[in-house]
Amino acid sequence: MASIARCLRAARPSTLSRLAQTTPLTRSNWQPASLRAFSATTIRDARRYTKDHEWIDLNLNKKEGVIGISEYAAEELGDVVYVELPEEGKVVSAGDAIGAVESVKSAADINSPIACKITSINLTLEEKPGTINQVPEDDSAGGGWIAKVTVDEQGIKDFEALMELEEYKAFTGSEDH
Length: 177
Known about the structure:
Elements: H1 2-8, H2 13-21, E1 48-49, E2 54-58, E3 64-69, H3 71-77, E4 80-84, E5 91-92, E6 97-103, E7 107-111, E8 116-121, H4 124-127, H5 131-134, E9 147-151, H6 153-160, H7 165-173
Antiparallel strand pairs: 1-2, 2-3, 3-9, 4-6, 5-8, 6-7, 8-9
């Protein structure tokens, strides 16, 4: 706050009178040197999918990620009424159950797509489980993600073996799922 306060201090009256006598600057030709987009989330690497319809995003250094269920799974489940979230600090292997989703149609386990450690969970889903239906593949603060994780070498190997988006679309379009 101190730096903001310093920026907002009034200028000396003598300075103001000198500024008033000068011609105003026009900004018609002003262009920013470069545009920079700001984001609240870390830049993510390519998202990968499992045959059980979970997804994972890893950040560019492949040390942290976010896990959730796919849009396809959310549509197939129908209206989600309860989400069992994983335990923070839990270390899991690829395929281990980390939670569950219950809907008006059925219930399903949520499996870890890779070996990882759960670092935080989406507590919004406890109060508003329907968020998964609205934005299942959104890893922002208001999204339907399940857990944030840290990843080790085995997790990176597991990640590389998962399906990319085009493969996953082909998989969900076939009869094998």
